[in-house]
Amino acid sequence: MKLTWNKNKSNNKKRSREAIASYPNLPFDLQDLSHDDMQLQNQEHAHSQHQDKPSADALDSDFKQLAQSFQAQGNKLAEDGKYREALGKWETALNLMPENAVLLEQKAQVLLELGDAWGALKAAT
């Protein structure tokens, strides 16, 4: 079955620029804003940028704590012999903290236990 695109120029659905240009007082037209309105918009924009932003250190500590929680859950599952479930928990922890060498080693060991030597090699390097 061959698919083709219709290149019918008479069925052009785009608006012409003349239609838009005939309405000069649209609400998004910046030339009509007074100086006071521009200052108010700038202040609102600056205020909204500084609202409710947690610090980078707080986010890092939250990610680290969450990753450690997932790692502990994975460790418990691996001790119980539930390697696939442990691997899922460790994958989640690695998404949060990809540079964690201990998690990468544990992932490689579990993949070896499950018979996935190539996956273990990729996880270890």
UniProtKB/TrEMBL annotation:
Gene3D superfamilies, per database record: Tetratricopeptide repeat domain (1.25.40.10)
Positions with biased composition (Basic and acidic residues): 32-55
Keywords recorded for this protein, A-Z: TPR repeat
Region (Disordered): 1-58
Start and stop residues of the TPR repeats: 67-100
Name of the protein in question: Tetratricopeptide repeat protein 33
Lineage: Eukaryota, Viridiplantae, Streptophyta, Embryophyta, Tracheophyta
